[in-house]
Specification:
This protein is an alpha+beta fold. It is about 50% helix and about 15% strand. Helix 5 (about 170-195) packs parallel to helix 11 (about 330-350), helix 7 (about 230-245) crosses helix 16 (about 415-430) and helix 13 (about 375-390) packs antiparallel against helix 16 (about 415-430).
Length: about 425
């Protein structure tokens, strides 16, 4: 979640004025709050901050209330969450925020409705995410200027949803719940593809690839550097090589290092959709983008919703699986529960598969997808996980202003020996499972 400094107060005040005098009057007039609604006011609230929004590192989050008359919404006002780009325009550009905001808009307005249209329970499809209300996002920033782009969602804080208390690693119960929801999300793609012949418009796969824009390529390279993949991801490989005194992992480590040397071409291959198992992926499926609801008596998680599909893409289901399971589970839990995790994911797929239709994928398929595409999750863990376990939060401004080589060096220093150990565990798990 983006921070704002005291020196930014005037800019922040201007943005709040923009929301109250431009964004919400326009959103109401365009029907975002239902037919017959008339705009009265917008006020900024304090509704729990990041706990009710997830950790949005590249955005500023505003909690507020929109007051309306003559609508389906409550008389006391509509609790909303507004996502704006971070105020540093240079940093926003470095993070491809125009494209990410646009993708989120496309996901909610073009792709989620198609998934719902081919589902047994359309309402359950929309319930996977917060209710989308409005956006003015365009891929190029729009006439109003990129800093004026917004995503407006109904707030889930009043319904008791909040970020998990666990800061990095989710326990088994939280993980199983998230995996079942992920399976449901992916399973809806198989339904949509099965309905292609009965639906007007392009096939679902073509709709995804033609409407979503790329968010991870900078200046022709994955994350801006011709050696970013090997420069960050060899950290775990080297750590396991040092500890592997028996040479047990020599062959898989050599294969993995050769794959990493492919740099951006390797990442492009990992992300290339292969039928029939490709799905609409969230693209950034991790704890930061999950909100849980808890039983008040037991404090156990009973539901989860997904946030921020800004990096959605049509690709292998292993894109999302590998990211969550390598980023947000401990080595001990992965070792003890891997088959259980895969089963929970497949249960989620089954939850949305119409009765009488054969399962669109099996555990064997999941393992095959992990072999072919699971490196995606580890590659992201290589730069994300060290930042999450580092004693000091990452200096995002420094990372965006330094050279590509300096950025890699800073990432590799982050998290120290603890990060080395965690990345080593992931590489070892991938080798033990035959994924590398």
């Amino acid at each position: 979640m983006g921070d704002r400094c005291r020196s930014d107060d005037d800019v922040w005040s201007s943005r709040m004025d923009y929301l109250s005098t431009v964004v919400f009057p326009r959103a109401v007039a365009e029907g975002a709050f239902g037919p017959g609604a008339e705009y009265v006011s917008f006020r900024e609230d304090d509704r729990g901050g990041a706990a009710a929004a997830g950790d949005q590192f590249a955005s500023d989050i505003v909690f507020g209330t929109v007051t309306l008359t003559g609508s389906e919404w409550p008389a006391g006002g509509v609790p909303v969450v507004v996502k704006l780009k971070i105020m540093d325009a240079r940093m926003a550009a470095m993070m491809n925020m125009n494209q990410k905001f646009y993708n989120e808009y496309v996901f909610y307005t073009r792709l989620l409705p198609v998934l719902a249209a081919s589902a047994v329970d359309p309402a359950a499809v929309f319930a996977l995410f917060p209710r989308f209300l409005y956006s003015n996002a365009t891929p190029d920033g729009g006439e109003a200027g990129e800093q004026q782009q917004v995503i407006v969602l109904a707030s889930l804080a009043p319904a008791g949803y909040r970020a998990a208390d666990q800061q990095v690693f989710l326990d088994v119960e939280h993980t199983l719940l998230a995996l079942r929801k992920l399976g449901a999300l992916h399973g809806l793609s198989y339904n949509a593809k099965a309905a292609d012949s009965r639906r007007d418009g392009p096939p679902f796969a073509d709709l995804c690839t033609s409407t979503l824009v790329e968010t991870q390529w900078f200046d022709g390279h994955w994350y801006k550097s011709p050696r970013f993949l090997s420069g960050t991801s060899n950290r775990g490989v080297n750590a396991l090589r040092v500890s592997d005194t028996s040479g047990k992992y020599a062959a898989p480590l050599a294969r993995m290092q050769a794959t990493l040397s492919g740099e951006s071409a390797t990442m492009a291959a990992l992300l290339r959709p292969v039928e029939p198992l490709a799905v609409l992926c969230h693209g950034d499926f991790c704890r930061n983008n999950l909100l849980y609801r808890y039983d008040e008596a037991t404090r156990r998680p009973v539901d989860v919703v997904v946030l921020d599909p800004a990096q959605a893409r049509y690709a292998s289901p292993a894109i999302d699986l590998s990211f969550l399971l390598y980023m947000n589970t401990t080595d001990a839990d992965r070792t003890a529960n891997w088959d259980r995790y895969v089963a929970a994911y497949l249960d989620g797929v089954a939850d949305v598969t119409p009765a009488g239709r054969a399962a669109p994928l099996t555990a064997t398929d999941v393992h095959a997808e992990m072999r072919a595409h699971g490196l995606y999750g580890y590659a992201h863990c290589s730069f994300f996980l060290p930042a999450m376990v580092n004693a000091v939060p990452p200096d995002v401004e420094q990372l965006t202003r330094c050279t590509a080589d300096e950025r890699i060096e800073l990432i590799n220093e982050s998290g120290g020996k603890e990060a080395d150990r965690l990345l080593e565990f992931i590489v070892r798990h991938m080798a033990d499972c035959g994924y590398v």
